[in-house]
Amino acid sequence: QVQLVESGGGLVQAGGSLRLSCAASGRTFSHFIMAWFRRAPGKEREFVAAISRDGLRTYYADSVKGRFTTSRDNPKNTVFLQMNSLNPEDTAVYYCAAREGIDYSGIVYEGIAMYDFWGQGTQVTVSS
């Protein structure tokens, strides 16, 4: 089992920034591909970003490319999501997810079913 705990959400004005963190415990963190998903009110959960086990490869949804950056600190068992130029459409509950196994460079791990463990989510609200 892996326990994931997100933090850093809150209320921010449009154009502002937030940095989310996800702390992992229970297993060897570097064995996991990590990802961020979000669920906006009335919408399905959607992929936001993913990062390879070694942190060298990152993937982003088109809607956040150029504005969001994900990174990880393996010795500290933490993954981050830096969100800049936020707009009201980014309002959602943001979830951290973990997938154990080899991360092949030719695959984008953006499917919800690809992930084995999930955090409880953190609310991000962007006011206009």
Radius of gyration: 14 Å
Helix content: under 10%
Q: What is the structural class?
A: mainly beta
Report the sheet-strand fraction: over 45%
Shape: globular
Q: Let me know the number of strands.
A: 11
- The helix/strand order is EEEEEEEEEEE
Distance between the termini: 40 Å
Counting DSSP H or I runs of 4 or more residues, the number of helices is: 0
Mean pLDDT: 95
Could you name the ranges where pLDDT drops below 50 across 5 or more consecutive residues?
A: none
Largest sheet properties: 7 strands, mixed
Summarize the structure.
With 128 residues, this protein is an all-beta fold. The protein is 0% helix and 50% strand.
Plain-language structure description:
The chain is mainly β. 0% of the residues lie in helices and 50% in strands. The protein has no helices and eleven strands. Strands 2, 4, 5, 6, 9, 10 and 11 form a seven-stranded mixed sheet that branches. It has a four-stranded antiparallel sheet with strand order 1-3-8-7, with no helix packed on it. β7 and β8 form a beta hairpin. The mean pLDDT is 95.
